[in-house]
Amino acid sequence: MYKLYCEQHPGKSVSFTIYRNLTMNLRFKRPKIDTCTKCDTLNAKLKYTISNKENEKKQIEELLEEHQNEAENAYKSKSLDKEKYKLNEKCVTYAFDLQQVLPTPYLTSNKMFYLRQLPTYNLTIHNCSDGKSSHFMWPESTGARGANEISSCIYRFIKSIPERTDHLIFYSDTCGEQNKNFIVMNMFQYVVHTHATVNRIDHKFLVPGHTHLECDIDHSVIERAKKKTSISIHVPRDWYQLVRTANKKDKFSVFPMEIDHFFGFFGIIHKRTSPEKKNQNKRYSLVKVH
Ligand SMILES: [Zn+2]
């Protein structure tokens, strides 16, 4: 870096010691490994399109620009929504995502590579206004990681929010099986119809391939704690304890999910779509999923 700096400022460059002191906060990052498929495909097409096909190249460039603008606008929308809380405490923005599976027991023995481990799931809901995170955790023996389980965690979370809140904004990625589906949508609808104060919920999605959410930072904090931990992890509740203590500023709360916390929100869709039950639409009831 210093060499490049000297090349770009011949005769005017400062000494290496001064340069190092001034750039102490700069760090090299590893190359990204989780890049966007659409960006990669378009960039590859652009690179290998024959140079005389100017029209084709222009079309690809326009597609790439449009896609990147769309992704940028989604991030801007999230930043604007986060600011809304400062003007109106009744409107709160959250980001949610499921963490990579946490295997139990967590051992470094090479035999573990060939054995089936019990997965523990963690759905993180990050409050973008105060930076606190709620972690809803359960082992696979209690529940799967489908739309009903995700909805049940969010439903439990919404029941615990302060009563003054009336407008919730949720951000997530577009994973169809977990986040972007009718079951989650119907759970939100159920909340709007039954909650004492919440009367509006917006669920917004980031552009596929550009889905960096605040909960991803929480997950990387947990991953770091996982590597450094001296806690022996033999049962799922050991993971709960690790997550609880992973954030040094005490911003992580853990809510273990038991079988009774899971509901089937698909039943509500059925009620609303069957014509013979039209008159009963105003009466909702939750059914247990397991
Ligand atoms: Zn992209």
TrEMBL record:
<dbReference type="Pfam" id="PF25273">
    <property type="entry name" value="DUF7869"/>
</dbReference>
<protein>
    <recommendedName>
        <fullName>DUF7869 domain-containing protein</fullName>
    </recommendedName>
</protein>
<feature type="coiled-coil region">
    <location>
        <begin position="43"/>
        <end position="77"/>
    </location>
</feature>
<keyword id="KW-0175">Coiled coil</keyword>
<feature type="domain" description="DUF7869">
    <location>
        <begin position="133"/>
        <end position="231"/>
    </location>
</feature>
<dbReference type="InterPro" id="IPR057191">
    <property type="entry name" value="DUF7869"/>
</dbReference>
